[in-house]
Amino acid sequence: MAENLTPGQVLQAVYKADGEFYKATVVTVSTSAKRQKAPVKVHYVGYEDSDDAWLSIDQLKSKALKGAGAPAGKKGKAKEEPKPKAKAKAKAKAKVYDFSAVEKGMKLKAEADGKFYAAQVVAISTKRKDTPIKVNFLGYTSASDEWMGCDRLRSKSIVLKEQTTTPTMPAAAKKLLLVKPAIEAPLDPGFRPVILGKKKYLEEAKDCEDKLDWALPRADGCARYTLPVFGEKSRNVPASIYLAGVLIQEMMWQRSAASLMLAGPKRICNALKKAFSKGGAYEFEIKSMPNVCGTPDKPFEVTIVSSADELPAAKDTPQVCGKDANGCRLAFDLGKSDIKTVAVKDNEVVYSKETEWDVTNKDPQYHYDAIMAALKLAKEALPKVDAIGGSATGTVSGANEATWCDIFPNVPPKVYKEKVVDIFVRMAKDLAGDVPLKVINDGEVTALAAVQKIKHGNVMGISMGSSEGGGYANADGNLLGWINELCYIRLDLNPKAPTDPWSKGAHTGLSHMYLGQRGATKLAAKGGVEVPKNYVYPHKDMCTIKHE
Questions:
Q1: Which of 85, 169, 376, 482 is an S-S bond match for 255, by CB 3.0 to 4.6 Å?
Q2: Taking the complete model, does pTM exceed 0.70, yes or no?
């Protein structure tokens, strides 16, 4: 249908950086075989020539293209029957299912001869890619048992995995944001720190008149930020969009967010709204935040307002933490590889132990029993228990509720709400009655320990283990009510940086792949350490939640 277009013709064209349609004019139409997929070059009205782009027909809107690609029987000429090879290319991608919640003995429906019948799971195999679940049809002998694919099964425990759209880093973003450190990392020469990219961007954008403002409201506060952005006609707009996404993501995991509010240039706001929506680059964040905030039934929303004056003001809610260790106290630290327990009597440690556990276990009772068993051993070292303190990765409320803790990643959502949210409160009561209890993020413990040691505030703490925790204490040495899940923020902007198992591959360059055990283990072989083949990154055994 490209032949229906002529140079100078006005139409609507997609701008690849944000996926939105803008007014444009046709520059030229190519009949070259090399331009078959994208035969039309357009110029966006009001923008620089450097933004001109070659586009495919489906990226254009015009009455002259009406009927393009319509099936037979509809308006427009029917498509010719594709050749066998073309058919193979056009075949839809196979659906990918998540059956991790399926267990042996579970009842479900299974298909046979086009109908679904009652059945029971008798075996599960992760090695059988296409038919991972073996079922027995109820009322029939094992002779009729069959290995099946998830497409032939019906169960609430089998869900379709949603594929996210992770766009490549735009050329303008690469040019401004990928900054090589003065001292190159010898084992990771491609490392491109976010902070250096941000510094270069801010220097380049210091004279920009346009501003992008955003607000991240939460139950007990609100985060605010203002970023100078390049004008909508500038070729550097994609860099503004890309960096804004990175910084919003960082602030979300630093402080949490129930929603995102944007104010600024339309093109940039629209692009960010799309990125922080279902199917966008930050789908992992917008699906996680409702759980983080303790409102799993309330979807994350993105709104665009006309002025920064309409955004809520910045607000924090400082939390005062005691710093006295007199008396008899129990403490625990729940890491992603072990449970650390300590008994303290009048400021002196009288017991300390690390106990391995499996955070991938789906059963909340397993976690409760494992933590309690470790704490009971510590309790034996004390004549009594005056207070209990603990740390855990994830979001812990002011009432010591495990609102969203990623040390229980495989506990089903419904079971999590019933059995995990109050797990710390139940443990403390069962262990020592109504004694004072305080549970916070493991990185926050590090920050408070630093305040106690150096007798100074404005401290950032980092806890480096199987993952990585962060915490911040203000000038008074108090916490600010932030979630401090810094393991999920970007540290490396290199598009080829490693992915991670906790975000299930949604992002690259997340900080816990650098500031934690994985920061060392992923580079061990490169550093000359002799390790088994399956311990050489990126072997799949090195890219799992469970970190041996």
A1: 482
A2: no
Rounded to 5 degrees, φ, ψ at 119 are: -150, 175
pLDDT at 273: 96
DSSP of 328-370, one letter per residue?
EEEEEEE-SSEEEEEEEETTEEEEEEEEE--TT---HHHHHHH
Instruction: Give the strand pairing for 259-263 and 301-304.
Output: parallel
Backbone angles phi, psi at 504, to 5 degrees: 55, 40
* Residue type, position 373, single letter: A
* 408, 364 contact by CB (below 8 A): yes
One-character DSSP codes across 165-230: --PPPPHHHHHHH----SS--TT-TT--BHHHHHHHHHHHTTT---EEEEEEEETTEEEEEEEE--
Q: In angstroms, rounded to a whole number, what is the distance separating the alpha carbons of residues 327 and 435?
A: 12
∠ CA 246-251-252, nearest 5°, is 95
How many separate helices (H) and strands (E) can be counted in the chain?
A: 11, 23
Give the per-residue pLDDT at 14: 85
Smallest Cα–Cα separation from 250: which of 483, 498, 460, 462?
483
Distance CA 57, CA 13 (A): 9
Rounded Cα distance between 61 and 11, Å, is 6
Of 232, 235, 241, 267, nearest to 51 by C-alpha is 235
CB 28 within 8 A of CB 3: no
Q: Are 369 and 377 in contact (CB under 8 A)?
A: no
Length of the chain: 548
The C-alpha atoms of residue 478 and residue 458 are separated, in whole angstroms, by: 9
Structural tokens at position 191? 């490392």
SS (H, E, C) 55-80: ECHHHEECHHHCCCCCCCCCCCCCCC
SS3 assignment, position 289: helix
Distance (Å, whole) CA 351 – CA 348 = 9
Task: List C-alpha distances in Å: 178 to 130, 169, 389.
Answer: 40, 10, 42
Q: What angle do CA 122, 128, 130 make, to 5 degrees?
A: 105
> What pLDDT is stored for residue 113 in this prediction?
82
Buried b (16+ CB within 10 A) or exposed e, 385-418: bebbbbbbbbbbbeebbbbbbbbbbebeeeebee
